[in-house]
Amino acid sequence: MRGELAGEKLVTKFGVKSTPFLLFFNPDGTELDWIAGYSGIPENFHKQVLAILAGTETVASLESLHAREPDNPEPVIKLAGKYQARQDRDKALALSKEAMSLAAKGNRTMRLENGEVVSCAEMAEYQYARTYMVTYGIIEHRYLRDFIAKFPSSYLVKDAFRDLFGLLFTGDEGIEVYSKMIERFPNDPELANRLARYFGYSGIAGEKGKILDLSLGLSENALRVAPAVSVPETAKNLANLQILKGLPEKAEETYGSGFLAGQVKSWANNLMAYAEFWLQKKRNQKDAEAAIDLALRVRPEDRSLLRQAASDYLTLLGKPEKALAIFGPEFLKTIQDSPKDLYSYFSLWIRQKKIEAGALTALERLLALKPESVYYRGSAAYALWDADQKDKARSVFGPEFVKGRPENMNSLYEYGTFWLRRDIDMEEVVPSLVKSLRTIPKGYYEHMQTAEVLRKAGKAEAALAIFGPEYLEKNQDNPDALAEYGNFWLKQKSNLESADQALEKAAGLPSLTSRNRMRLARVFLDNAKPGRAEDIYGPAYLKTLGSEIEPLLFYSQFWKYTNRNLFSALEAARKACALAPTKIEAWKALAEICVVTAEPKEGLAAVEKALGLVKDSQERQKLETLKKQIQAALDKKEG
Amino acid sequence: MRKAAFFFFLFLIPIFLSAQNWLTGSLDEAMAKAKASNKPLLLDFFAETG
User: Fold this and answer.
1) Is A89 domain-assigned?
2) How many Cβ pairs closer than 8 A exist between chain A and B?
């Protein structure tokens, strides 16, 4: 179990980076295969497990096929996918590259799980590009965009656009990405929904220009096409064809009870979505309430639906009597053996500050069923604290709980972080946290945040114990941890020698990325060491930058922002423009740096280039303002 | 709660997983049992999410 040393060692030993994760071994102890995540319906998951046990396309069998057929890219592509799922970016990239070079030697094709046939060349490139979007590390989208440009008619282009929704593109970049997507898929309902959902994100609230129009048009087109296609009818027709073909079992799979259950669930969800949409907009209230009532009739046994409806009755309709009727004391009697439902009942009513006695009864029952669960105790403590039941929170997740578990580091950590921020029971909380973080270290951010709170609480010694020289010693190869450590202590004006050691250690690491260098330079500048900032991220480094545009633009913007090293920043922007003459950001960066380096003539030419490329009206306005500024500087210089 | 607890379990996989023999003890012991009974072994890492 996590929080115990033995469990943590296994997580490290097998490089588990996300859960759920299932690792299969051969009887001889060698790794057979793995499954990352429980996705899809249980039957499909079961099939996956059975396939592994049968040795079908396991890591082991793919490796053995690769050994027998070293020129065949297919097993290498599939292996890359396995490592991608395991979040091993380096290995997935290396395998994809190997597959790309094998695929380039021939014209092999491969069949995807859904039956589509694609060339190994495009599949290998797609696998390579998407690795940068779906594995841990800095997310980079340009590889997928390059893939789309290189294989515009590939079947995989839709997958690539789907992957790109991992990011939200704004401004000109958004217009470019989404216009290309719509050009290729002018009425695709799935992509239409994804793009429309984009406007549900609060960070995009200001993005109401061209991208809103694009999304509107795509959704209209998609809806025009969608009613012509009835999925149930297609399923029925397919089942009929399968029966005619003598495949009644397949027909069951296509259009049997599983299909119907999925449809019913979907009806209920759609009714709830309809109701909540209108209730939140304070319109069609009567209709919305009727939709909730109907959803409950469609799936009366669905407990999460009951909770959702109760919450809507309470918060959106102001009808507590209806909430109590479906999710009140009578309902509680039916969930006595279900921890999940007991917690759901407790948290709803305690937060609503209604039937609190009933809520606490549910909590008691839950803790009797799951006395050791840090998850439920911690979550309950949060809910109780928010509901002003502070004593109760302490009795559920206070010192008594950890006293009985002195070696459970997860309990100590969660308990410690919860109470540290509330400045309660510090005599027990501080040693618990220190013990937990020293026994099983977490990421640098957790150590740094905890150290900061500890120092604010006057516990300087404890802060040093978890984020001091001992921590530094154990993180000698981690540039981010070293930079943040150095920055933290320099800002605190304490532990200074160790802070300097950390920064120098980071600066000397052999494989620093452009971002690592930029962060270090920032720390050096903030702490009055401009010379060291230039050593690590100055003109000498610029000379080593190849043809990648983004590092050049970051470099230029960094030095412009810090108002230092400006001619080197100018050089970087010029290089970016030469390498990517159609990139607006490059011309804009050049124009901006020309303003501060007193090169208005070149700046004017750059801003005009950018204006010639820009499509977004807001961005055009900004560029026009910049142009006026540069023109004024030029007039002054010449006149 | 921000972070979920995280567990792992081990079990030997008999044909079709029809009877799941969850093992307790160390991974080494489980590996030895798997080898002795010539069965694959599954190590399940998962988060407690309620």
Assistant:
1) no
2) 98
**Structural domain count of chain A:** 2
User: To which residue do tokens 């270290």 refer?
Assistant: A441
Q: Does B13 touch chain A (CB under 8 A)?
A: yes
Please list every residue in chain A whose beta carbon sits closer than 8 Å to the beta carbon of residue B3.
Answer: 414
| Contacts with A401 (C-beta within 8 Å, 6 or more apart), sequence order | A377, A411, A415
Same domain (yes/no): A572, A522: no
CB contact under 8 A, A1 and B34: no
Global pTM? 0.79
Residues A571 and A607 in one domain: yes
Q: A597 lies in a domain?
A: yes
The answer on A601 and A572 residing in a single domain is yes
Compute the distance between CA of residue A513 and CA of residue A518 in angstroms, rounded to an integer: 9
Structural domain includes residue A518: yes
Owning domain of residue A629: 551-639
Q: A579: domain CATH number?
A: 1.25.40.10
Distance of alpha carbon A236 from alpha carbon A252, whole angstroms? 10
**Are B42 and A339 a contacting pair at CB < 8 A?**
no
Contact check, Cβ <8 Å, A25/B31: yes
Residue-wise DSSP of A78-120: HHHHHHHHTT-HHHHHHHHHHHHHHHTTS--EEE-TTS-EEEH
A559 and A625 inside one domain: yes
Alpha helices in A508-545 (DSSP H): 514-526, 530-537, 539-544
Interface contact B48-A16, CB threshold 8 A: no
Nearest CB partner across the interface for B13, out of A53, A373, A374: A53
pLDDT for A293-347, tens place per residue?
Answer: 999 999 999 999 999 999 999 999 999 999 999 999 999 999 999 999 999 999 9
pLDDT range class, residue A116, cuts 50, 70, 90:
very high
DSSP letter assigned to residue A2: T
Q: Are residues A530 and A582 in the same domain?
A: no
pLDDT band (50, 70, 90) for residue A407? confident
SS3 B13: coil
Instruction: Give domain status of residue A75, yes or no.
Output: no
Q: Which of B4, B40, B48 sits opposite A27 (nearest CB)?
A: B40
A566 and A526 within one domain: no
Peptide bond into A42 cis (omega under 30): no
> In this structure, what are the phi and psi dihedrals at residue A34, rounded to the nearest 5 degrees?
-150, 160
